[in-house]
Amino acid sequence: MNIVNDKLYRERVYAIVRQIPVGMVMTYGQLAIVLGDGYTARTVGYVMHGSDEGVPWQRVINSQGKCSTGRLTIPMNLQQELLEAEGVIFSEKGKCDLGKFQWFPEGFEPADDDQIRLFG
Hints:
By secondary structure, this protein is mainly α. Helix content is 39%, strand content 3%.
């Protein structure tokens, strides 16, 4: 069985993504860390590509603070536009400040600013 096609695997990803508040983001790698063994940034990205309706997929971005779907959506840059509408600010190079906009589920909050970079 392919793990990313497993319904329980996918639903665990979606359950956390549904908790991300409006105007906040998580990274693919951060989700993988929160979910634990068997999850990687790559598989989380694959699962998000086929997310169910009602899953705020736009709130999951890459570790650089950028959207990874720029050329995959119509219109182009839809993910960034959706996030900007929620109040997430991007630089001219398409990068948001993870120190300001990255959300952490309860129990996974960083102890200090250095830890934020570890989740990026």
